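Progress report, Aim 2. The chain analyzed during this reporting quarter is listed below.
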Amino acid sequence: MTHAIEVRDLHKYFGSNEVLKGIDFAVEPGQVVCVIGPSGSGKSTLLRCVNLLEEPTRGKVYVGGVELTDPDVDIDAARRHIGMVFQQFNLFPHMTALKNVMIAQQRVLKRGAKEAEVVARENLGRVGLAEKCDAYPAQLSGGQQQRVAIARALAMNPNLMLFDEPTSALDPELVGDVLTVMRKLAEEGMTMIVVTHEMGFAREVADRVVFMDGGVIVEDGVPAQVIGDPQHERTKSFLHRVLHPEER
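Predicted structure tokens for the chain:
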């Protein structure tokens, strides 16, 4: 079976700073993988290398069996199968939620306005915002804006979704609605890599949890193992800080 994502011996330098130090990593179709670890551990860089938003210094990245790091690959065609949701929502402030979800469909997939609108309304419905189609970003909460961003990604019919700390910019009371949408996607069988600090979500939803520190994968396994019974001191120390912040 072809891996949904495969990363081989991935290295990434920023100047003389080696941020990724030889990552080997694969995700199967339909799997939800949560990547956890301290700030600066390379989590977001790994995610951005998967769809070549960052150019790996060395190593290979395959998505659906296609090598994205091949110089001859049509990267735009390959990226169309990958949805990405960032910490910041990156919505166009002068466009309604509906238009924000339509625009990439029209420009990238060349869908006509009618088809793009049907798909946009359907996906805004999927994230619980059917009644907010005509609202502008400034009229939406941060959680609602992030759900519009998720709908925008889903409207492109991706085979897999990458989430880079999608709740970290949100007020705590708004996090739940975004995580609910992500849980639903997982239940529908969407292949997902989620960089997150939400340990409850990782424990409940992930098929696998990957703990990164210092540019390497320290532990990789089922949530009960990595979060519930970590084997490495670095993992234990990180989880203790995250799960028991009052003891700092």
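Residues 172-187 form the longest helix (16 residues). The chain has a mean pLDDT of 94. These observations will guide the mutagenesis work planned for the next reporting period.
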